[in-house]
Design goal:
protein phosphatase, about 200 residues, protein tyrosine phosphatase activity, Rossmann fold, single chain, LMW_PTPase, alpha/beta
């Protein structure tokens, strides 16, 4: 089982959108192999998903039902194989809380670029392929990703962040989706391509 933790600030808009969208996608590609969860660095603990984020998630094919926000803790980080943060500041908070996550924490957009680079050179032959080797493939990723991270760095660091729409106008929620979906598609595409 591969466990991915998505994190944002309140854990009601961005990280639940990423959590539920990735879970649906991974369930289609590799049922029962991935567990995606989320938390917030300053979570609005116990809250349901923000209504406008939930509407956009449902429109994109995800299911917001039953979501409950929770606070990011060292214990949650200890259970994660990878952390996908919605901003560089969230990533920094995760690494400060659990330094072992240094090679395992990325922004969502950065991780999609890293996976594309790893796929482009097939991990230098060090990336296990095929449906039966999912855990081995993802265990090999931190070291491979570390080699690719610098080469795919965004020209503007702000390009790694996904805008926070909380309490803002609908256009900001739409922008969140536009910034987030291509990265989520890229992450799912990595696993889909690796299984062939």
């Amino acid at each position: 089982m591969v466990h991915i933790l998505t994190i944002c600030t309140g854990n009601i808009c961005r990280s639940p959108f990423a959590e539920r969208y990735l879970q649906r996608g991974f369930d289609e590609i590799a049922p029962g192999t991935f567990t995606i969860s989320s938390a917030g660095t300053d979570a609005l603990v116990g809250r349901a998903m923000d209504e406008r984020s939930a509407q956009r998630l449902a429109h994109a094919g995800g299911d917001p039902e039953g979501f409950v926000s929770r606070q990011l803790t060292e214990s949650l980080l200890g259970q994660a194989d990878f952390v996908l943060a919605l901003t560089a500041a969230h990533r920094a908070r995760a690494v400060a809380l659990s330094p072992r996550m240094l090679k395992r924490a990325f922004t969502v957009r950065e991780f999609a670029r890293v996976l594309a680079a790893v796929t482009a050179d097939d991990g230098g032959g060090r990336l296990p392929r095929g449906g039966g080797s999912v855990e081995e493939r993802w265990k090999a990723l931190p070291n491979l990703a570390a080699l690719k991270r610098h080469g795919v760095r965004a020209a503007d660091p702000a390009e790694d962040d996904v805008v926070d729409p909380f309490t803002r106008e609908d256009t900001v929620y739409d922008r969140m989706v536009v910034e987030l979906l291509p990265a989520l598609h890229g992450i799912l595409a990595f696993e889909a391509a690796s299984r062939s």
